[in-house]
Specification:
Length: 273
């Protein structure tokens, strides 16, 4: 997983995320999105009664994760999967999915909320909004305030092929024919890969790459990234709350925003400036 979101042995803190014998061997905060995929797989493969749609019509809209207990470096996690709300957006249906991951002691390790958009399944006269949805926050990107920090990472041509080995096997990210059915010119990078890259940038910029400092993360997937493109993460320390970092990601080559409304709640900051 760490390799899939761009961690490298050439980085000062790279080995602690890549080498199991490193004295500070650690798990990246966004690793917790992976256990939630087990529930998503059941959803999109027709194993949930009453829901029937094609995988090519599914888009990941938003992602939230909250870390309640430090991740173990080995062991098992057990997931509880809940469809919290079903929304009617007219052109499509939005599913809000909550996934709780517990360890063998039944302690909650992390919670995920996934927002899934299904094209062509709207128009059933359902609600358009949900009180259960965890909101994104507007960044200062469209104001005169320049980013407090900005980092970038150039993805490889095989970034999506590598990331999918962590369990996100949607063929949209590797099969050109399937990507074309979804309306893309070629396979796109997983939104959760971009999400992981962004959080890694915030870790580097504000936390001295200490994953224990991340409490929760939320972001919206606004545009696709194609493998080989460069992801730029712009960051702002939220005024009035020194433990929240607002962020957005854009593609350097096109200038298009690919992750929007992002925010990270930190337990504390080690590198504010």
């Amino acid at each position: 997983y760490a390799l899939g979101i761009g961690v490298s042995t050439t980085e000062p803190h790279g080995l602690k995320f890549l080498y199991e014998n490193d004295e500070n061997f650690s798990v990246l905060p966004t690793f917790g999105v992976l256990p939630a995929l087990s529930g998503l797989e059941a959803l999109i493969t027709g194993n949930v009664p009453g829901l029937d749609f094609d995988l090519s019509s599914v888009l990941h809209g938003e992602q939230y994760i909250e870390i309640l207990k430090p991740y173990p470096t080995d062991g098992c996690l057990y997931q509880t999967f809940t469809i919290t709300d079903v929304l009617d957006k007219g052109s499509g249906m939005v599913l809000i999915l909550d996934v709780e991951s517990c360890d063998k002691h039944e302690d909650v390790v992390c919670r995920n909320q996934c927002t899934i958009f299904v094209r062509g399944k709207g128009g059933f006269n359902g609600p358009r909004t949900s009180e259960h949805a965890i909101p994104v926050r507007a960044s200062p990107a469209n104001t005169d305030r320049k980013p407090d920090k900005s980092l970038q990472y150039t993805t490889s041509a095989d970034q999506a092929a590598l990331y999918r080995l962590s369990g996100d096997l949607n063929p949209m990210h590797v099969d050109p024919n399937f990507a074309a059915i979804g309306g893309f010119s070629k396979p796109i990078l997983h939104g959760l890969c971009t999400y992981g890259i962004a959080v890694r940038h915030v870790l580097e910029a504000y936390c001295d790459s200490d994953p224990r400092l991340v409490r929760s993360v939320k972001a919206r997937f606004s545009k696709p990234v194609y493998p080989g493109e460069t992801v730029v993460t712009d960051m702002w320390l939220e005024e009035g709350d020194g433990n929240v970092v607002l962020f957005r990601c854009k593609v350097l080559e096109t200038g298009e925003e690919c992750l929007s409304g992002g925010w990270i709640k930190l337990n504390k900051l080690t590198n504010k400036l």
